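Practice record 12: protein with S-adenosylmethionine.
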Amino acid sequence: MSPNTLESIKSYYNARAPGYDTETNFHPHQASDYLHWISPKPGMHILDLACGTGAITLPLKRAVGPTGRVVGADISDVSLEIARSKAEDEGLDIEWVECDISTIYAVPGIEEGSFDVVSCAAALVLLKDPGMAVREWARLLKPGGLLITGVLTGDTMVRGIVLDRVAEEEVMGLLRSAGLDGGESFLTESYAEPKYLDVEKAGEMFDALFEEAPVPRTWYADLVVPSRREKSKEIFEREMKKLAGPDGKLVEYVRFHMAIGRKV
Ligand SMILES: C[S@@+](CC[C@H](N)C(=O)[O-])C[C@H]1O[C@@H](n2cnc3c(N)ncnc32)[C@H](O)[C@@H]1O
């Protein structure tokens, strides 16, 4: 399977959608944090990118009320259908858009300078070119509007240190190069119990990386090159040992580097 094609992401989340709201993971907790950071007010216009089954989108609409506007966009039609049906049950008038959020600007009705807030929870890392996407999203904000997004920290998956390339400074850098001000950047608490890894089992962990679900597996695409796999495994074992403390243990968290930039 080719890594992170839109089709692969769509079918991965379409399959996950029916159980998404009852999965026991950090997403509901994170959704309530996004609501806190966004602090929606009556009359606001808000664009919730990669809205999934509407965990953030529905409460946003409740808060902005009938004079506000909320748009939820996602590539997964099954997720959107679930979100739409929940909204209809509550009589919430939300606009749903099935599209690639990287090119949301091309969707009719999504106008430059028209949103108070653009949010994208737990999806930036899935995009092919997050820098380009963030620049386009920034153009949709009104002056003073906020763009709120984040990427997992490297220690979420010590095994996936590659994620660090889009971590901390980079996520803020993306917002800055989209013309937003330096704003705020901070680390969230861990959304899951810390997981202790035994570096003596690094070789097994390396092999297990390739048995994970399709989307996470693509994060390690560089290592899948068959001619490099044994070499990669050696480096992986060595680096895990270097990272571990004297007790040979490493801890994984589920934390996010958050970035909130303001359009000036
Ligand atoms: C981890 S879920 C997060 C859903 C929601 N924001 C939440 O916090 O519950 C990631 C979502 O990103 C969507 N997604 C990933 N890449 C996308 C893209 N290029 N365009 C639109 N949606 C995308 C997926 O379909 C999925 O619904």
